[in-house]
Design goal:
By secondary structure, the protein is an alpha/beta fold. It contains 11 helices and 17 strands. Helix 9 links the parallel strand 14 and strand 15.
């Protein structure tokens, strides 16, 4: 790559909340303390980027901002401070957890994703929907040297680490049943991690094409939720329900179904973040002894482990490429559920 750094670059911005990003030139940022300027090679497109653009969540960023938190690129300039063995020329990535304070009770007990002072890539800090980005070198993902397909690897930085962490906290053991509800950008990768972890995977979705994708990635059994009550099918197939249920779907109904699909003493983990609420029977939760957990991306250690699975060939995201000027079309297809797997921008 060239070492010449321009004064401006093209990026896709949320100038106001709504369905359309504006593509325009902005100034190349100067890296501050513990920061690096990165020339972006590829960036995955996440459903979170769509939520960010449309202002779906209660805590909203302040426009204008650049979405994107699955960017991979080359470090081309370092700011002041300690960079923890990150050097110019290294390949690194940004992530949803862009930084944390490192000092609060959550950070010092290995729960940095819960830090009240965390910054979020492509949300509170400009992200990777442009050819340059800043990273905090203390928190930037280190891309293994054996990884060369950066378009394919980009989704690991959010979709991959998010579902990997969720499977870990489900505490489901090898040989037990794990339902993956929603076989989209996150779910199709979750199937692969679950299989690699020795779990018996049941995929649930409303699209047969996505269920077929789950089968190709190793799902033992699939359930089309359009054709009947998935809970009844799962209960019958498993002889009492799944030991773990991971919900990556973005429809409220999937969250209620998870309670019915779970085995007694099972664990349900929520990854999807649809707006709104879902009905939950207190009686069923108590009577069945269920554990319900929310799981938000992963720590730096989770990221290293998730990338290692990919580097060893155990995970292979289904990814299609696009150019930056196609981002609005990609978001529109995502909104309509028309994307199989993941899309990544190549620069």
């Amino acid at each position: 790559m060239t070492s010449t750094i321009p004064t401006q670059f093209e990026a896709a911005l949320v100038d106001e909340f709504g369905p359309t990003l504006n593509i325009r030139d902005i100034d190349v940022p100067k890296p501050g303390v513990n920061q690096a300027l990165v020339k972006v090679i590829a960036s995955g497109v996440c459903h979170t980027d769509l939520h960010a653009a449309e202002g779906d969540w209660p805590v909203k960023p302040e426009p204008p901002f650049v979405p994107g938190h699955e960017g991979i690129g080359e470090v081309i300039e370092l700011g002041p401070g300690n960079h923890h063995n990150v050097e110019v020329g290294d390949i690194v990535g940004n992530a949803w957890l862009w930084s944390a304070c490192g000092e609060c009770e959550y950070c010092i007990t290995g729960r940095e994703t819960q830090c009240n002072f965390a910054e979020y890539g492509g949300y509170t800090v400009n992200g990777s929907f442009g050819s340059y980005m800043l990273v905090d070198t203390r928190y930037a993902a280190r891309i293994p040297e054996s990884v060369t397909n950066y378009v394919e690897a980009a989704p690991i930085l959010c979709a991959g680490v998010t579902v990997y962490k969720a499977l870990k906290v489900s505490e489901t053991r090898p040989g037990q049943f794990m339902v993956i509800s929603g076989i989209g950008g996150l779910g199709h990768i979750a199937v692969q991690y679950a299989v690699a972890m020795g779990l018996r995977v049941i995929a649930v979705d409303v699209s047969q094409d996505k269920l077929d994708l789950a089968t190709r990635h190793g799902a033992e059994f699939t359930v089309n939720a359009r054709e009947g009550d998935p809970a009844e099918v799962v209960q019958e197939y498993t002889g009492g329900g799944a030991h773990g249920v991971l919900v990556t779907a973005v429809h409220e109904k999937a969250f209620r179904q998870a309670i019915d699909m779970a085995r007694r003493a099972g664990t349900i983990v929520f990854n999807g973040l649809p707006p709104g609420e879902f009905p939950a029977s207190v009686f069923e939760i108590v009577f069945k002894g269920l554990t319900i957990r929310g799981s938000l991306v992963g720590t730096r250690q989770d990221m290293a482990e998730a990338l290692d699975f990919y580097a060893r060939g155990l995970i292979k995201p289904t990814v299609s490429e696009c150019a930056l000027d196609e981002i609005n079309d990609v978001l529109d297809r995502m909104r309509k559920g028309k994307i199989d797997g993941r899309v990544a921008i190549r620069y």
